[in-house]
Amino acid sequence: MNKTIVAISTPLGSGAISIVRLSGIDAFKIACEFFTPLKKQKIIPRKMHLGKFELGENFEKCLMVYFPSPNSYTGEDMVEFHLHGGLVITQLVQSKLLEAGATLAEPGEFTKLAFLNGKLSLDEAEGIIDEINSESEAELRVALSSADGKLKKEIIEKQDLLKNILAEIEVGLDYPEETEFTQLKTSIFDNLTQIKESLDHFILNAEQIKLIKNGVNVAIVGRTNVGKSSLLNALIGEEKAIVADIEGTTRDIVEAKIDYKGVRFNFYDTAGIRDSSDTIEKLGIEKSKRMLNTANLVLIVLDASEKITNEEKSLIKSLKTPHIFVANKSDKKRVLEKQKDEIEVSAKTNKNIDILKKKIFEKVIGENINFNATTVLNERQLEILKQARAQIINVLNSKEDNIEILSLLIKKVWQTLGKITGQTENEDIISLIFSRFCVGK
Amino acid sequence: MKEKYEAIVIGAGHAGCEASLALARKGHKTLLLTISLDAVAFLACNPSIGGTAKGQLVSEIDALGGQMGIIADKTAIQLRMLNRGRGPAVQSLRAQADKIKYHTEMKKVVESCPNLFLKQAEAEEIIIDGDKKIVRTAVGDEFEAKVLVFATGVYLNSRIIIGKYTEDVGPNGFKNAKKLSGSLTKLGYKLLRFKTGTPARVNARSVNFKELEEQNGDEEIQPFSFITKKKIKNRAKCYLTYTNTKTHEIIQSNLDKAPSLSGEIKGIGPRYCPSIETKIVRFADKDRHQLFLEPESLTTAEIYIQGFSTSMPTSVQEQMIHSVKGLEKAEIMRDSYAIEYDCIDPQQLSLSLESKLHEGLFFAGQINGTSGYEEAAAQGLIAGLNAGLKLEKKEPLILSRGDGYIGVLIDDIVTKGTNEPYRMMTSRAEYRLSLRQDNADLRLTQIGREVGLVDNKRYNVFLKKKNDLEKAISKLNEKLKINEKLINFFIKNEENPPKNSIKVKDAIKRSNIDAKKINEEFGIFAEFSDEIIAELNLIVKFEGYLKQQKEDIEKAKKTEQVKIPNDFDYYKQKGLKIETMQKLSEIKPENLGQASRISGVSPADIAVLPVLIKKHEGEKNERKNKKNV
Questions:
Q1: Domain harbouring B76, CATH code
Q2: In the predicted model, is pLDDT for residue B291 greater than 80?
Q3: Which residue of B has its CA nearest to A166?
Q4: Quick check: B575 and A109 CB within 8 A?
Q5: Which of the following CATH numbers is that of domain A215-365: 3.40.50.300, 3.90.1300.10, 3.30.43.10, 3.30.379.10?
C-alpha cells in the first residue's frame, strides 16, 4: 500500500516513555519534517538519535530511530519516536504526523503489514485476524453504544444534506436537456457552512470528552518559593511534592492526580521559573516552560504577601494557555495587587482550596458540560470528522464555480463521513436522483 | 455435418457486431448469427447515439479500435455537444443517427470483414462438450466453436405489450428467440426478466413544426471517432414540445388500461426511462413533460417522440398524442409498445465478461441486464476481445474503473448486479474528471494496440496526438515576456496583469484566460491543432484535481493487485462473518478491490482478507514444497 500509517504504540497515559510509530513509504520524509537531531548529524539507520520534535512554537526533546525497509517490523520504512510519557505530548506528536500526511493505523495494521510482508510465520495469521476483528468490534461497539448510534444518526443527517446537493448537481449533469441549474450554488454554500458548524460542535464536544476521559492537565507555575508544592499537596491532600524553604527544590515536574466531579485532573508542579546556572535545574526549567504551553490550564501561583515581580509580569505576559491566578499565603498580610480572575487561598491552612478546585473545573470543563454526552467519539472517528471539516473548508475557500468540480469536492466530504456511518454507496445518490427528479425519456 | 469456427457470436445487434468484429479482426474465424439480417445493428429505440456518459463510452470503444464511433460519425444527421460550459468531463457528444443508414453501414462493415461470416439463423440450444461448444439452430443446423459470445439483446423470450394486446415477438415485430432462454436455464444460468419500451413514430408531414421550438446541431462539429477526418454536416432538425394538462387528464382517466401499472407487465423497467404514465403518477405535481421530436432517417418521414413511451392501448395513445402541441393531427405510423425479455444475472460473469459457470462462454449487451446501444457495444467489444484472447491462450483485458467508463460499467454489473436495465451515467464514474471523451484515446489506444485491436492507421493518429501533446506541454514552462502587449492582454481579459514575465502555464491558470486565447495573441501553440490546445488547457486548468484523482486511481489499483485465488474457499476461513462468506462465495471477486465494492462486505472484512489470502497461498506453497521433498 502507498500510505504511511501512524499510531501510538504504548498504552495511553501511563509509563515513563511512550512510543509513536510510523510505517510506510513516506515514514522517513514525514518524520524529518518535524525531527532534527540535536547535533544536526545525519540520521543513521537503526541508531537512536536524540533531537527535537517541532511542535509549532515548542518542541519535544525525544529519541528517534529509523528502520529502512525491508529490515523493520512491518517490512516497510519505519520510524519510531520515543517520547516522554504522558498523553498530551504523545497525542500532539501523533496529530502533527497526521497533519503531515500520515493516516491513523487501522486496528492491528502494523502486525498485519508485518505478516503480509513475510515477517511473521503463517501460524500467526489467526492471531492477527482476531486482533483486527476484536479491535474493529470494539470500535463498532463504541459507535453503536453512543446512545443507540446517535452519533451515526447525526452524521447520516449531514450526509443526507450532502447527498441532496449531489443529487441536484448530478441530475443536471446527467440530464442537461431536462434540467436547469437555478440558484443552486447559494444553497450549496449555506448547507456546507451549516454542516461545518455541526462538525465544529462534534469535534469540540469530542475533545472535551476526551479531556474528561484522559484527564485535564493543570500546570502549577510560579516564582520559586511561592508555595507551589504546598498548594499541590493541599489540592491532592497528601504529601507528594517535596516541600522545603530552599529555592529551587522542585527540579522536576511532579504529577499528581485527583478525581473531581468525575473528571480526572493531572497536576504538574513545575520547577520555579528563574534564571539558574545549575544545569540540572536548567533542564527542569526548560521542561516547565514546555509544560505551560501544552497544559489545558495553568495555575499561576503568586505570593499574596509580596509585590508582583518583573519575572512574574513577563511570565504572565507570555502565557497563552488559559490560566487562573492563585494568591497563596492568604494567612499572611496581603501586599499583592488584586489580580483579574484571582482566588485567594492558603495552602497552609487549606483555606479556599475547595473553591479553587471548583474554579478549575468550571474554567476547563465549563458549567454546562453534558456528562451523558452521546457523541463519544473514538480517535479514528474524531480524525475522520476533522478530515471532513478540512475538506468542507477547502470547498468553501475554493470559491469554485465549476459545478462539476464542486460535485467532486462535495462527494469527497460525503465519502469521508461515510467512513463513520458506512454509507458510501454511490447508488444512494443515483436512487435519490430518480426519486426526486422526473428525468428520462 | 457440423461447421466449425473458432468463435460464434449469437446476435448481431450493437454488442454482437463489435464482438464479432473484434474476434475476426484478431484473425479468428467467427460466425455471427442473427435472427434477422434486417435487424443487424438496428437502432430499435432512439435514432441517436451518445449523450451523457454514453458519448464517453463511444469514444472509448473507438479508442480501443471498435466500430461504433466510425459508423455514428458516418451516419450522423445532427451532432450536439451536451453540457458545453458545465464542466470538462461531463461534456458528451450526442448524434442523431440515420437509423436506416446506421444499419446498412454497420452491416456492410460486418459483411466485408475477413474471417467474419454473417448468417441468419435462430440459435436454439447450446451444447457444451468440454472444449467444444455447439450451437444448434431452430432449423437443426449445428455449428461448433471453442468460444461463444451471447449478445442476444432483448430477443430472449420477449413479448411486446400494447394495452391488452400482447405478442411473443422481439422489438419492432422481429421474430424473438423462443428456446435459447430454456437452454441457458438448463446450463444453470439464473435469469432475470426486464422490461423497456419505445414511443410511437409519427409521419413528419402531419406534424405542425411551425408551432414548435427548433433544436439545431452545433455549429462547430466534433466527431466521435478519433480517426474521422471528414467534416460532418448537420442535416436535420429536432423539435421540442411538451405534454400538457389535457394529456395528463387523458392518461389519468385511462390508468386502468395501462399494463405497466396494472401488474400485467411483470418485468422490471428502468427508473431512468419511465413510461409517460409512470412519470405522471410519480410526479403528479409536474404540469408538463418535455418531448423531443427526432427524425429517424433522411430516407423516411418517421419521427420519434422521445419521452412519450407508453404501453397504453392504441386508442388512448392516439388521444394522448393528439393532445400535444404540434401533434394535433399527427398520423401515427408505429405504435408505442412495452417489451419484456429475459436476461441473465450479470453477477454470474467475471470481469472479463466470461461466464463463471462455463469457460469459453462470454456474454455482452442487454442479455447482461444493461440498456442502451453504447453500453451494449462496449461490452461486445470487450467480450469479443477476451474471447479472442482466450483462443490465443492469453490473459483477458480487464479495464479498471480508473481506465474508463467501460471499466465502471462492467465492474458495476458484475460486482453488484442490477435490478433494472442498467444505464451508464457520469455520476457512476468516481474518476469522472479523468475519464473524458477528449482523452479516451490517450487512456486506451495503447492498450488497444497491445491486445491487437488497434490498426496502424489509428495507432499513428494516436502517436501523433501523443507526441504533439507532449511537445505542447513542454512549452508550458516558457515565459511570456513582460511588455505592453502582455499587460494589455491581461487587461483585455479582465485579469490583473503580472508584474514580471509569467510562465505560460500560470497565465493559463487565470480564470479568464485559456490556452486558446494565449495562442491567438502570442502564437505560442501555432503548430498545434485546436484539439491539442483544448487538451492542454484542460490539463493545466484542472491540474490539481487531476493529480489528486491520479493518486486515488493508483491507490485503487493497489487493492486490485491483491488477487483472490480461484481455489480460495471462503467457508473454510476463520474470522469472516457467515454473511460475508456467502456474499463472497457467490460473487467470487477476482481481487480485493472488487471484493470491497460488494454490498454487505465491511471494511473490517477487507482488512482481514489479505491476511487470509496470504495464509492460504503460504500453506499451499508449503504443501507443494513438502511434495517436492
A1: 3.50.50.60
A2: yes
A3: B427
A4: no
A5: 3.40.50.300
Chain B contact for A178 (CB, 8 A cutoff): yes
Beta-bridge mates of residue A346? A351
Q: How far is CA A248 from the centre of its chain?
A: 32
Predicted pLDDT at B515 = 96
Per-residue pLDDT at A245 exceeds 50: no
Q: Which of A3, A174, A441 sits opposite B307 (nearest CB)?
A: A441
pLDDT at A206 (0 to 100): 76
Q: Name the minimum distance, in Å, from the CA of B119 to any CA of chain A.
A: 34
Closest residue on chain A to B291 (Cα): A441
Q: Does A406 touch chain B (CB under 8 A)?
A: no
Partner A, chain B 551-580, Cβ-Cβ below 8 Å: 554-555, 558, 574-575
pLDDT tier at B496 (50, 70, 90 boundaries)?
Answer: very high
Answer yes or no: do B611 and A434 touch at CB < 8 A: no
**Do B542 and B584 belong to one domain?**
no
Element (H, E) at B160: strand B159-162
Residue B575: list chain A partners with CB under 8 A.
126, 129-130, 132-133
In the prediction, which pLDDT does A140 show? 58
- Report CB contact under 8 Å: A441, B273: yes
Q: In what order do the strands lie in the sheet with B361-363?
A: B116-120, B30-34, B7-10, B147-150, B361-363
Residue type, A259: D
Q: What is the pTM of this model?
A: 0.86
Contacts of B83 in chain A (CB under 8 A): 173, 176
Q: b/e for B439-457, b at 16 or more Cβ within 10 A?
A: bbbbbbbebbbebbbbeee
C-alpha cell at B309: 413511451
- pLDDT range class, residue A371, cuts 50, 70, 90: very low
Is residue B375 domain-resident? yes
Tell whether B502 and B579 lie within a shared domain: no
Across the range A287-293, mean pLDDT stands at 75
In a domain? residue B551: no
Percent of residues in chain B assigned helix, strand, coil, to nearest 5: 45, 20, 40
Q: How far is B263 from chain A (nearest CA, A)?
A: 21
pLDDT tens column, B396-414: 999 999 999 999 999 999 9
Cβ contact (<8 Å) for B90 and A173? yes
Longest dimension (CA), chain A: 91
Is A438 near chain B, with CB under 8 Å?
yes
- pLDDT per residue over A139-190, tens digit each? 555 555 544 467 778 889 999 999 999 998 999 899 988 766 555 656 888 9
Cα–Cα distance for residue pair A175/A181, rounded to 1 Å: 11
CB contact under 8 A, A130 and B575: yes
Whether residues B205 and B306 share a domain: the answer is: yes
User: Could you tell me if A1 lies within 8 Å of chain B, comparing CB atoms?
Assistant: yes
pLDDT single digits (tens) B11-21: 999 999 999 99
Q: Prior bond to A70 cis, omega within 30?
A: yes
Q: Are residues B134 and B58 in the same domain?
A: yes
Chain B residues in contact with A426 (beta carbon < 8 A):
427-428, 430
CATH of A5-105, one of 3.30.1070.10, 3.60.15.10, 3.20.20.70, 3.30.1360.120: 3.30.1360.120
Residue B130 in domain: yes
- B41 with B17: CB under 8 angstroms? yes
Residue B350, classed as helix, strand or coil, is: coil
Contact B545/A at CB under 8 A: yes
- Say whether residue B617 is in contact with chain A using an 8 A CB cutoff: no
Domain extent for B487: 466-546
Helix then strand then coil, % of chain A, to nearest 5: 45, 20, 35
